[in-house]
Amino acid sequence: MPSDAELPALEIPLEKLCFLIIKAREFDAKVPADDDASNPSDDKEVAVLEETPDDAVLDELTAAIDGLNDDERAEVLALVWLGRGDATADGWPALLAEARTIHDWRETPYMVGIPQLGDLLEEGMSMLGRSCDDVALGHL
After folding, report:
1. pLDDT band at residue 31 using 50, 70 and 90 as cut-offs
2. Angle 117-127/70-84 helices, nearest 10 degrees?
3. pLDDT tens digit string along 117-136?
4. Is 73 within 8 Å of 106 (Cβ atoms)?
5. In this model, does residue 17 exceed pLDDT 90?
6. Please, are residues 132 and 115 in contact by the beta-carbon 8 Å criterion?
7. Mean pLDDT over each residue of the chain, to the nearest integer
8. Which of 110, 107, 108, 87 is CA-nearest to residue 97?
9. Residue 31: which H helix or E strand, with range?
10. Global pTM?
11. Long-range contacts, stretch 99-107, CB < 8 angstroms, 24+ apart
12. Start-to-end CA span in the chain (Å)
């Protein structure tokens, strides 16, 4: 992990990254909607964990991603790649430069569709010496 003096500057505020991680994990925890016509009293109300067309968690995650500017989106994508193991922290400048040249990822559905988005973001942040530990998550 780089020392504090060597930490690369990030355009995206840490609070935004942590919010994305929280929402991505909430979304990843959902299961696809099932048409088994179960009885809510019999299934212990687990229907709230199912992904539905009117999904508040998906709406929040989508709105958060839509609210990112191009530089922030490039950083999110590069952090995902870093967290996935595509490079080490030393390779951050090259990853970020590559992310800035990609245009397909600017579509929000692409980002929402990245499996384990929250975990990959957190791992990428960790590799750059960043953490959500010091962010007041109660208001997110």
Report:
1. low
2. 90
3. 999 999 999 999 999 998 87
4. yes
5. yes
6. no
7. 83
8. 87
9. strand 31-32
10. 0.78
11. 99/74, 99/75, 100/70, 100/71, 100/74, 102/74, 102/77, 105/73, 105/77, 106/70, 106/73
12. 27
